[in-house]
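Why do we care about 3D structure at all? Because function follows from shape, and shape follows, mostly, from sequence. That is the central idea of this module. The next example makes it concrete: a single protein chain, its amino acid sequence, and then its structure expressed as C-alpha cells.
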Amino acid sequence: DELLASLSPEELAELEKELADIDPDANVPIGHRQRDQTDKTPTGTFSREALMKYWENETRRLLENEIGGGNLDA
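And the structure:
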C-alpha cells in the first residue's frame, strides 16, 4: 500500500497499462480484472426527476402506440 501511495499519477497510469496486458486470473472477480474506465468527465448535469419523467412519458407513449396501433415515429 505504501509503495502504491508513493507513485505519481503518471507512474500509476503506466502500471495500470502494464497490468492490462497480463492475462487475467480466473480466480479474480470480473469486476476486478477490468481496468478502470471511469475517468470520463461528466457530459452534463443529472436530474433523476427529469429522467424518471422522460421514462414514464416514453413508456406511456409506447403503450398507447402499441394498443392503438399507431406508428412509433411520434
